[in-house]
Specification:
5-stranded mixed beta sheet; alpha/beta; 5-stranded parallel beta sheet
Length: 807
């Protein structure tokens, strides 16, 4: 804390100097008057002299401005101590001694401490007592004692103690009043001055009866030693008050420091918040401008792509006319020079048309509008056109052009023939363009891929200029050329290879520069999925059974085939994975994979894990059968996404029900187990509302065989009562039975749903399906068990199915 300078302190009373002087005079006089009238036994003086603290604090706070009030108060005090007898010399000597003591103390405090401080540390206040209290009190108290003719040896130590206690207790009180406007002393009038006044008054009031005047009887009873002990008790109490002043000063100073620090931090926080708010505002405006700029850029990009596409189409129309007319002119008998001119024009128009097609493709790719088809085509017939044209141009340049197509390749394939022709044509055109001498070879064959996959491989090998090592990947970037001389020599916009690679990736393949040596040639490799069988829409869902036991394979095949599945079998996991991958590549993925490996269930989990790595979410629904189930297998099955896990022995009915649930999709059960099947059977209550002539008993018995508890009713009142009292999964209504009043029942169930109650599924049977709100499924009349079981998510049993367990 910086000290309070006297000049600064003096400014506190500059607005009302006479008021301040009057208060100081009253404090000097009143403090001395009260201290002199505290009765002490045995002629002992009171070890407390308030005027010493008032004079020192007044001079430190107000400087010379305080002298009038201090002089008047001091003269009045010593005039009172002289019992109102004007003895000029003693009174003046005593007053001068008190004022000189205060002036000396103020000078020492200013010299060594710079003035009155907030005194946040006890060391600073101790130095203040030494400089302002002890050192000047030695000559000062001796002067006024001598002025009144008192014994120095008897009263001088007590007077020094009184000066110190007066400075220690009263000076903080005056500081708190005089410096109350300064931030460091704000609030101390209440927290320092008031407690010190109350504590000192309470101390004197408590000890006054003990130290007051005594009669002769009391003096006989109370020895002089006891009187001195009481006097020392009073002295100790005053010392405690002085220490209390130190403590109060430190506490209030630190409280003020903390308050100032809090205010400073609060101000800093407010400034930081304001700055942050400005920064947030700036960022919001920046983000808004950035968003607007991005929208403008996107709009500009769309406009550019639209303009590019429109212009490309507009250019194609007259260009096609130019090419067509040129072709017609070439069909006529022309002189050799004219024919050469027309052939040059046709060649240039063809190159321009290729460039325009590239611009259209690039525009479509930029906005994500390029679509890939999947149609049948003949591979050799497709390749004949572009390879024949490239061969003619190559032979015209004196190049050897060779084509090698493997005989084992299927003739009919599935894919996008137009895009494949575009890629092959561009690669062969580049090979002819960049090859000055030597040969060009096109190799078409089949490559093995991942498990069971087949890949169509097309390689174009030339002996042209090659590609430098540092440009091998960059040549696939849009508008990239190896150097400017290449563009000048061979032409082109640098879009072809970029478009070809993107087309290859859209078709599920890849185009890469497999080999290249600058000055010696290059080898481009195109790989695409080889699909030679087109999926048939609406065909029977297929299932793959992987079982190591021949008997189990036969049993599972028989059960699932009668359930309407096309079943393929495999004897081990490797064969099964190969078949699954082959089905995915051919566009005929399996709907269900059933694994029954007796050796260990760990083999089944390993196969599932490998399948997930290969196909991910595209893998079929997985059904595991095992005879060696252990605790924790169900949790592992859930982690791997297995749809059903059953431990053997399993009956065909259980197998049919589990397969039906799995094929119905994940909305029924997260994992089908024996427990879930048992709960499913128990938790499928039905209400069967049929006509009286519908033989409900036979239908109820058939439903119970498939795990459904059905209650048949044939009248509207009974039907409404059951619907109101029972919680069922589904209600089956014969819509054409007049005695049921089916529309009223549906309305009642809808009102029940509006009230927040569970509404069961409503399955209606009618000759003609209607549009009725609330009816979930319509079945044709008459009601048949297989259709009803399918609507309920149950697998119907087939006639003649052997109900023996699978072990």
């Amino acid at each position: 804390m910086s000290p309070v300078r006297p000049a600064a302190a003096g400014q506190q009373g500059s607005e009302h100097p006479w008021t301040d002087n009057l208060i100081l005079a009253v404090l000097v006089f009143a403090g001395g008057w009260i201290a002199a009238r505290v009765p002490m036994p045995g002629g002992l003086p009171l070890p407390f002299w308030p005027p010493a603290g008032v004079v020192l604090a007044g001079l430190l706070c107000f400087g010379r401005r305080a002298l009038p009030g201090l002089v008047i108060g001091t003269l009045l005090l010593f005039y009172d101590l002289a019992h109102y007898q004007w003895r000029p010399l003693p009174i003046l000597i005593a007053a001068a001694g008190l004022l000189a003591q205060g002036a000396a103390g103020a000078w020492l405090v200013r010299r060594w401490q710079g003035g009155a401080q907030p005194y946040t540390r006890a060391r600073d206040f101790g130095l203040f007592l030494l400089l302002g209290g002890l050192l000047p009190s030695v000559p000062g108290s001796g002067a006024w004692l001598a002025g009144f003719g008192l014994s120095l040896s008897l009263y001088w130590p007590t007077a020094i103690l009184a000066q110190l206690s007066g400075v220690a207790i009263v000076a903080p009180i005056v500081f708190a009043w005089a410096l109350r406007a300064q931030p460091a002393w704000q609030g101390r009038l209440r927290s320092v001055a008031l407690p010190l006044v109350l504590i000192t008054a309470l101390l004197v009031a408590l000890l006054n009866p003990l130290l007051g005047p005594m009669d002769s009887d009391t003096r006989e009873l109370l020895r002089v030693a006891h009187v001195h002990a009481a006097w020392w008790l009073m002295s100790a109490g005053l010392v405690v008050c002085g220490l209390m002043a130190v403590l109060l000063l430190q506490l209030t100073a630190r409280s003020a420091a903390v308050r100032a620090l809090v205010e400073q931090r609060t101000a800093e926080l407010e400034r930081a918040n304001a700055e942050l708010a400005r920064e947030i505002d700036v960022r919001k405006r920046t983000e808004l401008r950035l968003r607007e700029a991005m929208e403008e850029a996107a709009s500009a990009g769309r406009l550019k792509n639209e303009f590019l596409g429109n212009m490309s189409h507009e250019l194609r129309t007259p260009l096609n006319a130019v090419i067509g007319m040129t072709e017609l002119a070439l069909d006529a008998e022309l002189p050799g020079e004219v024919r050469a001119y027309l052939e040059a024009a046709r060649s240039g128009a063809g190159e321009l048309l290729t460039l325009i097609d590239g611009m259209i493709d690039f525009s479509q790719m930029s906005r994500g509008g390029l679509q890939i088809e999947a149609t049948r085509y003949r591979l050799r017939q497709l390749l004949a056109g572009p390879l024949k044209a490239a061969g003619e141009r190559a032979r015209a340049k004196g190049l050897v052009f060779q084509v090698r197509i493997e005989d084992a390749l299927p003739e009919l394939l599935i894919g996008d023939p137009g895009r494949l022709r575009q890629i092959v044509q561009h690669l062969t055109d580049n090979a002819v363009k960049f090859t000055a001498h030597g040969s060009i070879e096109v190799r078409v064959g089949e490559l093995p891929g991942t498990i069971g996959a087949r890949l169509l491989s097309i390689e174009i090998v030339d002996t042209g200029i090659g590609v430098p090592e540092d440009h091998r990947e960059a040549i696939f970037d849009p508008f990239h050329q190896v150097d400017a001389s290449t563009t000048r020599r061979f032409g082109g916009a640098g879009m072809g290879l970029s478009i070809c690679r993107q087309l290859a990736r859209l078709m599920g393949g890849e185009l890469e520069l497999a080999e290249s040596t600058e000055g010696r040639g290059s080898r481009f490799a195109l790989t695409l999925p080889l699909r030679d069988r087109e999926p048939v829409a609406g065909e029977t869902p297929s299932a793959l059974v992987v079982a190591d036991a021949i008997g189990n394979r036969r049993m599972l095949t028989e059960v699932m085939s009668k359930q309407g599945l096309a079943v393929i079998t495999a004897s081990d996991a490797a064969e099964g994975l190969a078949l699954l991958e082959r089905g995915r590549v051919d566009g005929q993925p399996y709907r269900l994979l059933l694994i029954d490996i007796d050796e260990s269930v760990e083999h089944a989990f390993r196969m599932v894990r490998t399948l997930r790595e290969l196909q991910g979410a595209a893998a079929p629904s997985i059904f595991i059968l095992t005879g060696h189930g252990i605790r924790g297998d169900a949790a592992r099955s859930r982690e791997l996404g297995v749809a059903a896990y059953l431990t053997k022995p399993v009956t065909p009915a259980e197998l049919r029900e589990a397969v039906a649930i799995v094929l119905a999709g994940p909305g029924f059960d997260a994992l089908v187990t024996r427990h879930s099947l048992r709960e499913r059977r128990m938790a499928t209550p039905l209400i069967l509302g049929v006509g009286v002539d519908a033989h409900p008993r036979e239908l109820v018995a058939a439903l119970e065989e498939h795990g459904c508890r059905a209650t048949a009713v044939c009248s509207a009142p009974s039907l409404r009562t059951l619907c109101a009292e029972r919680e069922v999964e589904a209600i089956v209504l014969d819509w054409d039975a007049p005695e049921l009043h089916a529309p009223e029942v549906v309305e009642a169930l809808l009102e029940r749903e509006h009230l927040g109650r569970h509404r069961p599924r409503i399955i209606a049977c009618a000759v003609t399906a209607l549009e009725v709100p609330g009816v979930d499924i319509w079945l044709p009349a008459p009601l048949e068990l297989p259709a009803l079981l399918a609507a309920l998510g149950r697998a119907p049993a087939r006639a003649g199915m052997p109900e023996r367990e699978l072990s």
